[in-house]
Amino acid sequence: MRRRFKALIFLVGAAATLFAANYFYLSIHNPMLNENQKVVDVTRVSPQKLYEKNWQTIKNEYYDPNFNHQHWSRWKNRYQGKIKTEEDAKVAIETMLASLDDPYSRYLTKEEFAEQNTSITSKISGIGVNIANDAGKIRIISVIEDTPAQFADLKPNDVILAIDDKKVSGLSLAEVSNLVKGPVNTFVSIDILRENEKLNKKIIRKEIKIKTVKSSIDKNIGYIQISSFISSSTPNEFLEALENTQNSEGLIVDLRGNTGGLLTNAIFIANLFIDKGKLVSIVGRNGYHYDIMAQDTNLEIKKPIIFLVNGASASASEILSGAMKDYHKAKIIGTTTYGKGMVQKIIPMPNETGLNLTIAKYLTPKGKDINKKGISPDIEIKFTQEDIIAKKDVQLETAKQIMKNLISKHDSK
């Protein structure tokens, strides 16, 4: 099952993880992108020069040459002599970017730029929890299996009160995660509130490997969940999942809640099911058009396939599900996807910062522009309030029922 595929890499996605949010990749041997870029630009420049470098990069690479109906030169000297600190530069760059009215283009501080590399490798030095801000409380929403957090008996719904005696009230999620992280084999002390009981946990930090693909078999139906495309290990994890479910007669691939990640990963997985033709088209500035074509993998997946999607399935998820729908390789079940058809490139900038810049849009194999529209399912299944209260996954249950019929028809051929 496992075969070598030529590596591709660029940027798209909306991957939101515990320690990083909305970093999108699109990587392929495409002349739009400089494959020899540094991972980090350690050049030190003044805050004023940092602003000017961002202005020039946007001028040269932003996908819309009209810059949201404005003369981009108006920003060149707008803050001349006024930018004295790194915070001044950040505010000025963000103000400049806001004029583009593009929610996906954003400035990355040194810390945020470092976090996107952490997301790609899916490795962190920490304890293994996912957290959320719940009305001002930092709450654990899940505990990753086989991690120090699980061994220390941390549980979902635990509220974090303090880390190494520093109260977390009023801190951002990024600030809290930075307190939790630290060198491997060092200890962190965490005070938590569990129901009405205060507990203290001393937990050793370890390298946490985050899996993005899970698989199982229910009777004769295989199930593969891809939670994110951000990890460079996602292709291998998906191949392992295919091996684990190879004896099933039908396959359900769950992309619900998958907000995106590396375009490379979406293309790799689409290519496992589609061995001929166009997988996606990239349309850049001034009419630049680049088609990404399938390669022959010598791999045939002949069983019936269903893809589950919802309103949080975005970007790379839409590239994969869009290709599957256009080629009629799978039934799409759930609700309309998010509708993010834009491509970003993360550009290293001086002072170890970065620029997440929209450089193109993508089209499905049939040339559909899904931006702000999404991909409509073949069969729409919505959750009712009763389903939510009963914690009933009506979409997955419906998919299994439909799959049984598809398997029956497939076997009768």
Distance between the ends: 25 Å
Give a quick account of the main beta sheet: strands, pairing sense, barrel closure: 6 strands, antiparallel
Tell me the helix content.
25-40%
Give the strand content. Answer: 25-35%
Estimate the mean pLDDT confidence: 86
Question: Can you describe what's shown?
Answer:
This protein is of the alpha+beta class and 413 residues long. The protein has helices at 47-61, 86-98, 110-121, 148-151, 173-180, 234-244, 263-273, 316-326, 385-389, 394-411; strands at residues 10-16, 21-27, 106-108, 123-126, 129-134, 137-143, 159-163, 166-167, 187-194, 197-204, 206-209, 213-218, 221-226, 250-254, 278-284, 289-293, 305-309, 331-334, 342-349, 353-363, 379-380. The strands form five sheets. Strands 5, 6, 7, 8, 9 and 10 form a six-stranded antiparallel β-sheet that branches. A six-stranded mixed β-sheet has the order 12-13-14-17-18-21, sandwiched between helices. Strand 1 (10-16) and strand 2 form a beta hairpin. Helix 7 runs parallel beside helix 8. The longest helix is centred in the last third of the chain and has 18 residues, at 394-411. It starts with 9 loop residues before the first strand and ends with a helix. The model is unreliable at 1-38 (pLDDT under 50).
